[in-house]
Write a structure and sequence with these properties.
about 130 residues; globular; 5-stranded mixed beta sheet; about 30% helix; alpha+beta; about 25% strand
């Protein structure tokens, strides 16, 4: 799957975002090594700590369906700028997908990052063994 197609799927997912408080809608599309795509959107809750981001929604959906090997994740938003995964999402990404391509897009202009760039010196499973 091309990055453009993955970005398109992320924008489709963004349409389902529930963001009544911030009006900041985010969509994500996660490509697995087996070629499946899992999408996610942000879901805001009045108690903001219970809010779930699009990236985590997509990853958790994939994990709950037995997928554990990921190739790329596209992240888009209703902003006119690039939207990067938040700190919690970065931690989830490093837990499940250390070699994933993280694609941040505005329209179909995109940049690709690795998690070590976005979360250097991360805390991982190795640190608790």
């Amino acid at each position: 799957m091309t990055y453009d197609k993955l970005i398109e799927k992320a924008y489709e997912a963004m349409e389902y975002a529930y963001a009544p408080y911030s009006n900041f809608k985010v969509g994500a599309a996660l490509l697995t090594e087996s070629g499946l795509v899992f999408t996610g959107c942000n879901v805001e809750i009045a108690s903001f700590g219970a809010t779930n981001c699009a990236e985590r929604t997509a990853i958790f959906k994939a994990i709950s369906e037995g997928e554990k090997s990921f190739k790329a994740i596209a992240v888009v938003s209703s902003s006119r700028d690039f939207t990067y995964p938040c700190g919690i999402c970065r931690q989830v990404i490093v837990e499940f997908a250390k070699n994933i391509d993280i694609i941040v897009a505005k329209g179909y202009d995109y940049e690709v990052y690795k998690i070590e760039t976005l979360l250097p010196k991360s805390f991982t499973q190795i640190d608790i063994k």
